[in-house]
Amino acid sequence: MEPGRGTPAGRPRKRKSERRGGPEGPERRAAGGPAAPRRLLALSLALRLVCCVSVRTSFVPDEYWQSLEVAHRAAFGYGSLTWEWAEGLRSPLYPLLFAGLYKVLQLLAKDEAPLLIWLPRVFQAVLAAFADVKLYSLAKRLDNIETAKWVYFCQLCSWFTWYCCTRTLTNTMEAVLTTFALRCYPTEGTKMENSRCYLALVALACVIRPTAAILWAPLLLWHFVKESDKRHLLWGTCLPVGLIALGGSLVVDRVFFGKWVVVPLNFLKFNVLHDLAAFYGSHSWHWYFTQGLPVILGPHLPFFLHGCFHASRKHRVFLVVVLWTVAAYSVLRHKEFRFIYPILPICMLFCGRSLAQLKRWRRAAVSFLLSSNLLLALYTGLVHQRGTLDVMAYLRELCSPLAQKQASVLLLMPCHSTPFYSHIHCPLQLRFLQCPPDLMGRANYLDEAELFYSHPLQWLSGEFPNATATQLPSHLVFFNVLEQEISPFLISNSYVKAATFFHTHMPQGRVGSHIYVFENLFWRRLAKLV
């Protein structure tokens, strides 16, 4: 080749991959080329699986009673359904995912209790890992690779994400689907010719948990305002996706419930119009602003606030989403930390932006976030509220064929304190205190749990009047705060303490620091003979 044409004379010709900045080029690797997401995914998978095995505590009853227990009943034919399923307030789509996993284990003759417990959590861990990488990609599209790395770091070290991301909660799946959808969302400055991808994910999130519509309302409105071809977006994209999602949901619900049920409508009527969820507790209107959001952000809170003050124009719509979601949930009286968990990945966008701008103090900030979040994650994952899971592992020992015929367990605890058949996996006779809300509008209504705790000894005497040893439960399970009140019943009916499990360092009200298992002496002697 002549000098002056093509490659200059005296300069070596570059390889094709180097000219294009291919994966093997050092600049491409440093800039986060195609290999970067794969490495991040491998890191996320490893960390989320570690998270999965290191979270051995309970959070809220719904992670068992609205998912695994329903799946167990669907797959194996026995299990307890809460009153919500009788009223058609829950979509069966999410628990049916786990029912499918259970069926596969059953066909492989591997349906053992530990696998039934851990496989759904591993499934959630894998989804959480993919969501981490999707959040990194979103941050890279909004800002740059440097900021995206810090967003990814903040997501990985978030204590509440560590605490929740592998739990079998509909809120966890909502958070995952929201992150996936945000990656496909047409943000300002980008062109998105096909919106069906993110709209399908939004529709799926709303089917699994209708409250996902709260988070997505401002984003959908913003997209509609910015869209040039509004008619095509509305009639050519939104309507078909919505009809398919609604139709599919109706069919699944019809098969599961045996009748036509519109779950989102029932959910709206119960939680918003009638506000019956307040039966399970209520908080002041500002709770999410003063406690909810600060707690789930934890040590990230100052960085979130700093990132909000330095938000770019592209980020403003996401800041509106956070504020709108918290404000909308504040209107409802019943409030829980997990309800606003799906906005946590969005908050990480601002935390990562803050770290990217902290040049001088970045090393101190990183050390602070790592150490403080690690302490919170380890304590809440390994220590706080672990007794309700440990006691189920103990009761699982009653699943031997001979013990099943004689044993019966009465859980004298706030209703749904422990998992149920999903963690036992045998048709052992189990009973817990019921606590459905009053759907009939009766005056002075008290559920079974309230009746018991108002007069524990009187309730037990009424349930087991002049009972013989064979008519009494073989095992009683309760928190230590109840022992003194029911000790006359325990002594008169020959119950002895068989096991003690630590539960929490912060007991409150009816929830004690330890869980006791009392065993009937007659049953113990009978078990030894058998």
Task: Summarize the helices and strands and which ones pair or pack.
Blueprint (H helix, E strand, L loop, with lengths): L15 H5 L5 H5 L4 H20 L7 H15 L6 H4 L6 H15 L5 H30 L2 H13 L1 H6 L5 H15 L11 H13 L3 H15 L3 H28 L5 H11 L13 H11 L3 H9 L6 H16 L12 H14 L4 H21 L4 H9 L5 H6 L1 E5 L8 H4 L4 E4 L15 H7 L1 H8 L11 E5 L3 H10 L2 E8 L11 E7 H9 L1
Parallel strand pairs: 1-2, 1-3
Antiparallel strand pairs: 3-5, 4-5
Helix pairs in contact: 3-7, 4-6, 6-7, 7-8, 7-10, 8-18, 10-11, 11-13, 12-17, 15-17, 16-18, 23-24, 24-25
Question: Level of helix content?
Answer: 55-70%
Number of strands: 5
What does the average pLDDT come to? Answer: 89
* Cα-atom radius of gyration: 27 Å
Distance between the termini: 95 Å
Query: With helices defined by DSSP (H or I, 4 residues minimum), what is the helix count?
Result: 26
Low-confidence stretches: 1-12, 14-31
SS class? mainly alpha
Largest sheet: 5 strands, mixed
Number of domains: 2
β-strand percent reads 5-15%
Widest beta sheet: strand line-up: 2-1-3-5-4
- Inertia-based shape: globular
Mind explaining what this structure looks like?
By secondary structure, the chain is mainly α. It has two domains: 348 residues, no CATH class; 143 residues, no CATH class. Helix content is 60%, strand content 5%. Strand 1, helix 22 and strand 2 form a beta-alpha-beta unit. The N and C termini lie far apart (95 Å). The N terminus is likely disordered.
What key phrases describe this protein's structure?
mainly alpha, single chain, 530 residues, globular, 5 strands, 5-stranded mixed beta sheet
